[in-house]
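yo

u said u wanted the structure for the complex thing, so here. seqs first:
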Amino acid sequence: MSLESLAWMAWTPQTAIFFGFIALSLVILTLLAIYRPETPRKGILGFPTTRGDRFFVSLLGSAFICILWLRLGGGELWYALAICIPFAIVMFRFA
Amino acid sequence: MKKTINNRAWFLIAPVVIVVLFSALLPVMTVVNYSVQDAMAENHFFWNGDTWFRDLLDPSTEIGARFSGALERNLIFSFVILLIEVPLGIALSLALPRRGWAVGPSLVLIALPMLIPWNVVGTMWQIFARADIGLFGAALNGLGLNYNDTQDPVSAWFTILVIDVWHWTPLVILLSYAGLRAIPDAFYQAARIDAASRWAVFLKIELPKLQRVLVLAILLRFMQSFMIYTEPFVVTGGGPGNATTFLSIDLVKIALGQVDLGSAAAMSLVYYLITISLCWIFFTAMSQLDMLKEA
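structre next:
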């Protein structure tokens, strides 16, 4: 399959990196689930979560952080990302 | 200590994942790509950064005002639908016969509206609700009400709500009827021994036992009412004005009417995010209820 046949999807380097990051995370989570199985644990969210749940909550929460950032007329999205990363770390550590 | 869960069985859903890749994931990725670019003719794209999202989320812009208006209408619509259909569905399921020859015919009659496809429902009601020749519209006008679903916003909302209640309350009825039938007779016998009132039986036995099916019913009714498109598209066309322009209707207008692919893509992503979050909350609540039951 040549790159030309993907032209309709209108890829940009930025979105490719974004989806590449998600795909890579999913691969890592899959490998972890096979080689380092886990039990769900209960944290600050109040219900048992697995790594996958925490990843999902991190992504969803980050999306809302970015939306709120834009909604409140914040500057560059990089600053919003600077909030998202600690948020994701907190989710993985304590959720 | 609990055993770790073996997740290897998830590989069995790989075929479904591949199908979903083509039916959903690739289109979603394309929408994400569109949302950060300005599309010109002949597949020429220019990087636009977060501008579409900025405009969309700022109610002082034209697109932002449209989005917040449509989102508000969507939320009000779903809320009212749940408020009407869930209590009505429970009430009707309690009124259905529990045994005897009448069970089959009444269930079939109740389920009939669900078998009618959306666009047919829309066309039926478009004629049914007409103020001049439609039975529904003409009858309301005959009663002295000023009803016109294409000119009066209140009539338009009323019509869309009635259509949805007529079309989808049966789903709640069937789910809650199934939940009621699953309650063992022993519970009712115990209630009779205690001389419990009908109301107490409902509050203490039936409602708690219905919890799971009701969460499912609310989830399904929320998802379907939040993505409402066909009925207002056919019956009111989103009007009068923009009174019944819900998110999906506005999306189609922006994407296919104005060919503003970037705006439409940004809008559908925010729409998607809201839907996916609410569904996740419902799903988590549902699975937590299950786990509490097991524990």
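The beta strands of chain B are 37-40, 44-47. The mean pLDDT of chain B is 87.
cya
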